[in-house]
Design brief:
Number of domains: 2
Radius of gyration: 20 Å
Shape: globular
Low-confidence stretches: none
Strand order of the largest sheet: 3-2-1-4-7
Largest sheet: 5 strands, mixed
Bound molecules: zinc ion
Strand content: 15-25%
Order of helices and strands: HEEEHEEEHEHEEEHHHHEHHHEH
CATH class of the largest domain: Alpha Beta
CATH superfamily of the largest domain: ATPase, nucleotide binding domain
CATH architecture of the largest domain: 2-Layer Sandwich
Protein name: ROK family protein
Mean pLDDT: 95
Pfam family, one: ROK
Structural class: alpha/beta
Organism: Jeotgalibacillus marinus
CATH topology of the largest domain: Nucleotidyltransferase, domain 5
InterPro entries: ATPase_NBD, ROK, ROK_cs
Family: Belongs to the ROK (NagC/XylR) family.
Number of helices: 12
Length: about 325
């Protein structure tokens, strides 16, 4: 989306920030301008077994090199899997970052650079990237939902990221949709994620075919599910339709609760399966009050693979 006021602004006067996206397998860092342009980026393995200090060393080294290119960096944003204590700047206990538990990441980065440092959770970073770079000039209230192997979400309310107490707001994937549904990865029964994520739909497909005594190939992936569904295989089509319908119900509950203007859908499944996205968008109004129905807009995520560090940088740029 083109924002007129920023086109008038010369690129020389635009703010720049560093964004860091910490994941269980890799860490990505980017130098990002406030119009969303990535000026420099790098990616390296997290090496969780090696502990956080070796990763910190690499981060500091690279960020130092960014300061030589761009001395006017206004701050450093960090996106990390939760749970986090974002106020104290501590990584609490993300399951895929075992050796980082309790690590005072913000303090470590801050003592190296003496600049503004902000820590947010990774789903919030992706959500805020979509809001800040694509929609902030038009909307103030947005729900972001990402659908891939799991389902995550983020909330932008009154133009600001809403994080909740332990950066746990927007966990749309773990809203309870049924009292005796499938088991979710989180240990609860009947979460939205267990119905509508890639993993959830594959499990449902397998169970359905087995109950019909039809073969299920263990090598099949989500792609096979959607392809077979599209080509008229009844069971696959039913599973996709049901997954889309549960997702629409989950989204509609969030919409009824928060009354946003915009719902942005992202994640591997939404981006690869436009018909799934359409099914969801068409089904949401079935579960909404009339006045909510009239005012809701849907969009597909457009910040791509760098949304993680771009959103972390945006958290600093927005202040
Ligand atoms: Zn769950």
């Amino acid at each position: 989306m083109v924002r007129k006021k920023e086109l008038r602004k010369g690129t020389m006067t635009m703010k720049v920030a560093v964004g860091i996206d910490i994941g269980g397998t890799k860490i990505a860092i980017g130098l990002v301008r406030e119009d969303g342009k990535v000026l420099k980026e790098i990616e390296f393995p997290t090496n969780v077994d090696g502990g956080p200090d070796q990763a910190l060393e690499k981060m500091i080294q690279y960020i130092k090199s960014l300061y030589t290119v761009e001395p006017n960096i206004i701050g450093i944003g960090i996106g990390s899997p939760g749970p986090l204590d974002t106020k104290a700047g501590i990584v609490l206990e993300p399951p895929n970052l075992q050796s980082w538990h309790g690590y005072p990441l913000v303090q470590k980065i801050d003592s190296a650079f003496r600049t503004k440092v902000k820590l947010i959770n990774d789903a919030d970073a992706a959500a805020f990237a979509e809001y800040y770079y694509s929609h902030r000039s038009v909307y103030s209230h947005m729900i972001y939902v990402t659908v891939s192997t799991g389902i995550g979400g983020g909330l932008i309310l009154n133009g600001e990221l809403y994080e909740g107490v332990l950066s746990g707001a927007g966990e749309i994937g773990h809203m309870s949709m049924a009292s005796n549904g499938p088991l979710c990865g989180c240990g609860k029964i009947g979460c939205l994620e267990a119905f509508s994520s890639g993993t959830g739909m594959m499990n449902t497909w397998k169970k359905k075919l087995e109950s019909l005594q039809q073969p299920f190939d263990p090598d099949w992936t989500g792609k096979d599910l959607f392809e077979q569904g599209a080509s008229g295989e009844t069971t696959a089509a039913e599973v996709v339709k049901s997954g889309a319908d549960y997702l629409a119900r989950g989204i509609s509950q969030a919409v009824q609760l928060l009354n946003p203007e915009l719902v942005v859908l992202g994640g591997g499944i939404v981006l690869a399966q436009p018909t799934f996205y359409q099914q969801v968008v068409q089904a949401v109004p079935n579960y909404l009050l009339d006045h909510h129905k009239r005012n809701i807009v849907f969009a597909i995520a457009e910040q791509g693979r760098t949304a993680g560090f771009k959103g972390a940088a945006a958290a600093v740029l927005a202040e």
